[in-house]
Specification:
With about 190 residues, this protein is an all-alpha fold. The protein has helices spanning about 1-45, 65-70, 70-75, 80-90, 95-120, 120-140, 145-160, 175-180.
Length: about 190
């Protein structure tokens, strides 16, 4: 009776070892890929001219690289360059990586809008705020539980509230009773 139990235990142990070996192999491959991308990023940041002849599998086509590379121009005030990198990453990525790129793009626009607004150019900050709100909303459509995006969207809405959809810009039409009681300098011809 102990032989079948020992055999079952040996089989279960062998299966567990095989599963762990597969998981270790996958983790090792992902670590090697991340190290390769990090090495490429270091080279790219040291020499900003992009290498020629990149293949589709090269790190230059990795959205993680574009997100990381956008930090340097954003910090240097080159907003258009950083936004282009983040937009490229958002368009190429899926899932959590896309959400990260869109969130970072929203943060980039919000920071720039607040900087422009603080310098006294309120009208110039509005398009940037609208772009920030659009990116935060895109992130929240995919992941509604992302509190950082909710907070930043709320901040952008406090700075530049969305227009009321019922407000078309036309003057209000008064109801007949209110119109009569609120009119000035007009007599109804009553005795």
């Amino acid at each position: 009776m102990t032989r079948p139990i020992q055999r079952a235990a040996r089989v279960a142990l062998s299966l567990a070892c095989a599963a762990l070996a597969c998981a270790l192999g996958l983790e090792s491959w992902q670590l090697a890929r991340a190290l390769h991308v990090n090495r490429y990023l270091e080279q790219r940041l040291a020499d900003p001219t992009p290498p020629t002849g990149q293949t589709a599998a090269s790190p230059a086509n990795d959205p993680r690289l574009w997100i990381a590379a956008a930090r340097q121009p954003a910090g240097a005030g080159r907003i258009a360059e950083a936004a282009a990198l983040l937009r490229q990453a958002a368009d190429a990525a899926r899932g959590e990586l896309r959400q990260t790129a869109l969130y970072d793009l929203g943060n980039l626009y919000l920071r720039e809008a607040l900087r422009v607004r603080d310098s006294g150019a309120d009208a110039s900050a509005l398009p940037l705020l609208e772009l920030a709100k659009e990116n935060y909303r895109s992130v929240l459509l995919q992941r509604p539980d992302l509190w950082d995006a909710k907070f930043n969207l709320e901040l952008a809405l406090r700075v530049a509230p969305d227009p009321d959809p019922a407000d078309t810009g036309a003057p209000q039409i008064l109801t007949s009773e209110r119109a009569v009681t609120t009119m000035r300098a007009f007599t109804l011809g009553l005795p």
